[in-house]
Design a protein that fits this description.
The protein is an alpha/beta fold and 340 residues long. The chain has two domains: 220 residues, Spore Coat Polysaccharide Biosynthesis Protein SpsA, Chain A; 113 residues, no CATH class. Helix content is 53%, strand content 12%. It is built from twelve helices and nine strands. The strands form two sheets. The protein has a seven-stranded mixed sheet with strand order 3-2-1-4-7-5-8, with helices on both faces. A two-stranded parallel ribbon has the order 6-9. The chain is elongated. Bound molecules: guanosine-5'-diphosphate-alpha-D-mannose and manganese (II) ion.
Amino acid sequence: MISVIVPTYNEAENIRELVERLHKALGSNYEVVIVDDNSLDGTVEVAKSLAKKYPVKVVTRKNRLGLSSAVAEGAKWASGDVVVVMDADLQHPPELVPKLAEIAERGCLAVASRYVKGGGVRGWSLYRRIVSKGAVFLARLLLPEARAVRDPVSGFFAYSRECLAQIKPTGLYKILLDVLVQCKPRCVVEVPYIFGLRTRGRSKLGTRHMLDYLRQLLRLSKWRPLKFAAVGASGVFVAWAVLYLLSPLPPYLSVAAAIETSLTSNYLLNRLWTFAERKTPALIGWLRYHVATAAGNATNYITTLALNILGVWVYIAYLIGVIAGYAVNYILSELTVFMT
Ligand code: GDD
Ligand code: MN
């Protein structure tokens, strides 16, 4: 038995065609669980009338709690061992559902993917493409669990009901990220599809949801970017102390010593705190941290000395140097030193 979970908000114009096409694709031994958040356009009435002819369950909620929580709710009402999650607006082709379900029945997470060979999007502006690729890049950068997937923000996927029913959504929309991090599927299979154009009704996602997405990434990454920044800030105080103690020495030496000392204290704090759950060998990690932060430290060293020569007080010059090296360091640490 396959349960197709469909979150809806004002999709009255779409769900009839959706259910008809699902019925054609799945035949029997399936159900559709529609989870509606108090739509104003009569979605529930249409869903209830469909339920007379097709195996449709209608779950209604009083408040608009978001797509992710609607899906988690739907999983609690579903009776299949395998659930397929999809949008109501036909941008996800119902004809792909049997294939996704089959993969999930074998125990793997099945993801309908825009970003594997044969997949894509139709009619998107350059801006939307860039935003989408940026979202995917950030997810894969910050969440090791997302690196196995080319399209970790897909809203069209299949997996066990058991996993979905116990998910605690960390954001409003991207429940696949929660599945990846909270359930840690042992295998993922991506199936290409073309994300179609919405022909009826309106999209519910807007620019204001970007902030929600970033918050979700921070939560799922256990606030690593912020911890890393806090450690970096502590390193500035360590470096200032070294600069102060070594102030009789010429800056090209004292700045180098300040960088090396703070590098080591930063590494230790990141190992014990920011990336505590990753089993990084201490000494090898320390050496890798040198390699990973080399570009940032070189930037810092050159910037500090140059500003100092221009007459900037060495402590302030150092602070500016650190900021210049920070972004480079973070990205390289994620991708090399603390990689699992
Ligand atoms: N119950 C409920 N509550 N459903 C909602 C809510 C809500 O607050 N907000 C949106 N939905 C439903 C919509 O009715 C639709 O069925 C589905 O969630 C997706 O909403 P859209 O507004 O059509 O989203 P989109 O097209 O911009 O983005 C979709 O595609 C992305 C790319 O695959 C979403 O499915 C994303 O999750 C997906 O990543
Ligand atoms: Mn849509």
